[in-house]
Specification:
Blueprint: E1 2-6, H1 10-21, E2 25-29, H2 33-40, H3 51-60, E3 64-67, H4 70-75, E4 79-82, H5 98-108, E5 115-119, H6 127-136, E6 144-148, H7 158-163, E7 167-171, H8 175-184, H9 186-189, E8 194-198, H10 200-231, H11 235-243, H12 264-277, H13 283-306, E9 315-319, H14 335-344, E10 348-352, E11 367-369, H15 373-377, E12 382-385, H16 390-393, H17 397-400, E13 407-410, H18 417-422, E14 426-428
Parallel strand pairs: 1-2, 1-4, 2-3, 4-5, 5-6, 7-8, 9-10, 9-12, 10-11, 12-13, 13-14
Helix pairs in contact: 1-3, 5-6, 10-12, 10-13, 12-13, 13-14
This protein binds uridine-5'-diphosphate-glucuronic acid (UGA).
């Protein structure tokens, strides 16, 4: 099939590359000329394991192409995917849909034969209705169909999540479009992915409800971890024990720092805003947002206690600053709260991240990037493990530091407390 992906962010680029790998002809469109020219040279704008190889392979065999020309790319395609950003509006919890609607208007200028317009951007319920109205101003309704097909890709795991999804959700009010999309996804369905066809508005809500539920699950275990710390038991045992119940499930039950990223913080706020619009109080999600917001303060206070309220002049090695491992994404990372807090309290921070230094910390006092894990740990009083990159899992603390009083604050529970204590070092984890 001939596909056009509008927007070359995580969703558009990963989906475009994967669809082309499944044998479709794909054009990825972006208005950013530099990005498009770079993509043609094989320069990938985001860090995503496996993406570069996939893009290069399919660009070379001409199944994947890049363009800034939206109108002509849409004209050449049977199915058009909208994959643009829907950030939170300034001074509001609502999603900013201006990019989605602008693309809708552009598409309406280019429909020359029947096309399916698939919205993959995360959008509030009724956005599909609005896109349909925008296009219907210029195009006869017989010549297009607007479908919702939310994505469930995780950064860092996006290609695997695309190829082996738990489910594919297609929300459409017309059977013909559902049939065509089922055919498009048939290579994944034949490998075991479940295909759910539903109404367009339902598909839009499934996306928000999924992210809100996962954020709730994480916040729940984070609060249980707080309780475990007080009681003196290990939250990892609790996660295993409750996760073995198939009704609960073991995934997304890892206690850690506040959840972050470009999706959970934004989407929990947006679903609450949809609740308000439809006069429904989503009180559980509201308290999840509140609990997560206070989590970085809570972890900072715990560090303060560990250091006996003596952060001033301490040297802290901060390992991993992105919102999670296997990404270079800093959006809503809890390090953006923790590092400025520690710097304000007079600590010297030496941070290391496998994806390099971050401009977000350039202006902070006493915060510097270390080129290696060893440089970061050497001469430090405390090591904070903020993300669980594989590179961190085999650190030999004794080899990297001569400090016999080195404190390890393992915010991802990577290490076994007893093994670290056997080295004579002080160990603190989350909920243990
Ligand atoms: C999330 C969803 O998992 C995807 O299904 C969805 O498609 C995506 O949002 C989106 O809406 O685009 P992502 O933001 O890439 O994916 O990251 P996650 O792996 O879900 O992690 C989100 C946050 O939760 C991170 O801060 C992570 O460290 C935290 N987390 C995750 C935990 O603290 N514990 C866990 O057990 C799992």
């Amino acid at each position: 099939m001939k596909l056009c992906m509008i927007g070359t962010g995580y969703v558009g680029l990963v989906s475009g590359a994967c669809f082309s790998d499944l044998g479709n002809d794909v054009i990825c469109v972006d208005k950013d000329l530099i990005k498009i020219n770079n993509l043609k040279k094989g320069i990938i704008p985001i860090y995503e394991p496996g993406l570069e190889e996939l893009v290069l392979k399919n660009y070379k065999n001409k199944r994947l192409n890049f363009s800034t020309d939206l109108i002509n790319s849409v004209k050449k395609s049977d199915i058009v995917f909208i994959c643009v950003g829907t950030p939170t509006k300034k001074n509001s919890n609502k999603a900013d849909l201006s990019q989605v609607y602008t693309v809708g208007r552009e598409i309406s200028k280019s429909i020359n034969k029947f096309k399916i317009i698939v919205n993959k951007s995360t959008v509030p319920v009724t956005t599909g209705d609005e896109i349909e109205k925008i296009i219907a101003k210029k195009v006869n309704k017989k010549n297009f169909s607007v479908v919702s097909n939310p994505e469930f890709l995780r950064e860092g795991e996006a290609i695997r999540d695309f190829i082996y999804p738990d489910r594919i959700v297609v929300g459409s009010n017309e059977e013909k479009s559902t049939r065509i999309l089922k055919n498009l996804y048939s290579p994944l369905v034949s490998k075991g992915a479940k295909f759910q066809s539903t109404k367009r508005r339902a598909a839009e809500l499934i996306k928000y409800a999924s992210n809100a539920f996962l954020a709730t699950k994480i916040t729940f275990i984070n609060e249980i971890a707080n309780l475990c710390e007080k009681i003196g038991i290990d939250v990892e045992d609790i996660s295993i024990g409750i996760g073995l119940d198939k009704r609960i499930g073991s995934r997304f039950l890892r206690a850690g720092p506040a959840y972050g990223g470009s999706c959970f913080p934004k989407d929990t706020k947006a679903i609450v805003s949809t609740g308000d619009q439809f006069r429904t109080n989503l009180s559980v999600i509201k308290s999840v947002i509140k609990s997560n917001k206070s989590r970085s303060d809570l972890l900072a206070k715990r560090l303060s206690l560990i250091l006996k309220n003596n952060i001033n002049n301490k040297t802290i090695s901060f390992l991993g600053v992105t919102f999670k491992a296997n990404t270079d994404d800093m959006r809503d990372s809890s390090s953006l709260k923790l590092i400025p807090y520690l710097s304000k309290k007079g600590a010297k921070i030496k941070y290391y991240d496998p994806t390099g230094s971050k401009k977000e910390f350039d202006k902070l006092k006493n915060v510097e990037f270390s080129k290696t894990i060893k440089d970061s740990i050497n001469n430090s009083d405390v090591v904070i493990l903020h993300t669980d990159w594989n590179d961190f899992k085999s650190i030999n603390f004794k080899k990297f530091s001569k400090n016999k009083k080195l404190i390890i604050y393992d915010m991802r529970n990577i290490f076994s407390p007893s093994k670290i204590k056997k080295l004579g070092l002080k160990y603190f984890g989350i909920g243990r």
